[in-house]
Specification:
Oligomer: single chain
CATH topology: Multidrug-efflux Transporter Regulator, Chain: A, Domain 2
Number of domains: 1
Radius of gyration: 15 Å
Shape: globular
CATH architecture: Orthogonal Bundle
Largest sheet: 3 strands, antiparallel
Number of strands: 3
């Protein structure tokens, strides 16, 4: 399990606070029904890249949910995907 790395510079703190506010806004909109909570696997692949989505599922970072037994459609939590995407991009920037 990886260790959480805290922001070290003012720039990193600012970006972390902006991202936290954005994700909080998304959760609030979902809570009042103004934003979807899940997207399909196919849409997730379009937005975040199939390689990333498959890796996150394989690593257990996001859990796909099926729409019942008689369908193959998988749904993924939007906030979790956005959080993973942001942290993946941050790792690329700060290496």
């Amino acid at each position: 399990m990886s260790r959480l790395r805290l922001p070290e510079t003012e720039f990193e703190y600012r970006n972390a606070l902006i991202e936290a506010a954005r994700l909080g806004g998304m959760k609030a909109l979902q809570g009042v029904g103004m934003m979807k909570t899940h997207i399909s696997y196919r849409e997730a692949c379009r937005q975040y890249g199939r390689t990333n989505v498959d890796r996150w599922i394989k690593d257990g970072a996001v859990t796909p949910q099926k729409d019942g037994e008689n369908t193959s459609t998988m749904r993924l939590d939007i906030v979790v995907l956005q959080t993973l995407s942001t942290s993946t991009n941050a790792k690329k920037l700060y290496k």
